[in-house]
UniProtKB/TrEMBL annotation:
Gene3D superfamilies: PAS domain, Winged helix-like DNA-binding domain superfamily/Winged helix DNA-binding domain. Residues 130-191 form the ANTAR domain. SMART domains: ANTAR. GO terms for molecular function: RNA binding. This is ANTAR domain-containing protein. InterPro entries: ANTAR, CheY-like_superfamily, PAS, PAS-like_dom_sf, PAS_fold_3, WH-like_DNA-bd_sf. Residues 36-81 form the PAS domain.
């Protein structure tokens, strides 16, 4: 019975409950207009609707050592009409530094032309409130038969985003929650599609971003085995 209870706890972590800190955004290239979700506003230390996000405000919250790199990424994105991704630090209005990754994909108009980019900020900052998730992560080898493929998916994200094993698990858990897809099924499909990627390094992160944001659709489309 103890094993059943532990399995139920894991399902809550990787299912609909215990949400990962994630904020959504949209960015229009033409007028460099930003739209933030309430969660992303709070991530920066603001109440929902308190401010209108701008590129200047966005950059003001970047860690001083990361600001120039992120600004260059945004400039390149606008000039080339490409989505952007990044791992960097932000500093909220309370002075707290948060470690985040940004994953995005193109935003299209009705004619199919790229008009901007949209995606997510994932807060990777580990805090005391996340101790339970860390404990559950350490118990997964004894509780999930397909642990090996989860470890493969974690390893791939660790390499691409240069994050720790715990942070990689949080990203997978976020997508599992967001898409209501079993963690091991999501991980297996992610690994399968990563193996088909071209070897060209400059495009690797963009390809991984796209797969991470859309892989659940292929899981749902496949017949149950």
């Amino acid at each position: 019975m103890t094993g059943d209870r532990n399995h139920d706890d894991i399902e809550r972590v990787v299912g609909a409950g215990d949400p990962i800190d994630v904020g959504r955004f949209r960015f229009w290239f033409a007028d460099q207009r930003w739209e933030w979700s309430d969660e992303l506003a709070r991530m920066h230390g603001y109440e929902p609707g308190e401010i209108q996000p701008t590129t200047k405000l966005l950059l003001s919250h970047k860690h001083p050592k990361d600001r120039d790199r992120v600004e260059a990424t945004i400039v390149t994105s606008v000039e080339d009409h490409e989505p952007f991704s990044s791992r960097h630090r932000i500093v909220d209005t309370h002075g707290r530094t948060r470690d985040v990754i940004v994953v995005s994909e193109p935003m299209l108009d009705e004619a199919g032309d790229v008009i901007g980019t949209q995606g997510f900020y994932v807060d990777l900052t580990v805090s005391a409130e996340q101790d339970r998730r860390q404990v559950l992560d350490e118990t997964l080898p004894d509780l999930i038969e397909r642990r090996a493929v989860i470890e493969q998916a974690k390893g791939a994200l660790m390499v691409v985003y240069r994050i720790t094993a715990q942070q990689a698990f949080r990203v997978l858990a976020w997508r599992s929650q967001e898409t209501n897809t079993k963690l091991h099924e999501l991980a297996a499909r992610l690994v399968d599609e990563l193996e088909l990627l071209p070897a060209a390094p400059p495009h690797l992160r963009t390809c991984v971003d796209h797969i991470l944001l859309t892989v659940h659709a292929r899981v749902d489309a496949e017949p149950a085995g």
